[in-house]
Amino acid sequence: MQYDWKRPNGKEGMCQVIGRKWLEWLEAQDCKTSSKTTKHAQFQRNLIETYKYVVDMHSSYEYGHEFQEAKWIVEKYKLHRTIDHILTYRKLPE
């Protein structure tokens, strides 16, 4: 798979992957540091779950299909290696 970085919105899939990873990190931090059952804490958990669902289920090409492609590549090569490859070659690894 080769990523076309010159296309309009061509970077959206990778941005979605990074956003999804950030949400997972937020979720993990909440589990480590909080046993709160306050309304605010529950609202934050629900918001994180909602955004993860939106990222996972988006149906547009830019945000859905490209996210799935970038996610597969990051799972295969890991995030740091994928970013290093993008910085060096201006495209996702194949």
TrEMBL record:
GO terms for molecular function: ubiquitin binding. InterPro entries: DA1-like, DA1-like_dom. It holds the Pfam family DA1-like. It comes from the Eukaryota. The lineage of its organism: Eukaryota, Viridiplantae, Streptophyta, Embryophyta, Tracheophyta. This is Protein DA1-like domain-containing protein. It comes from Prunus armeniaca (Apricot). Residues 11-87 form the Protein DA1-like domain.
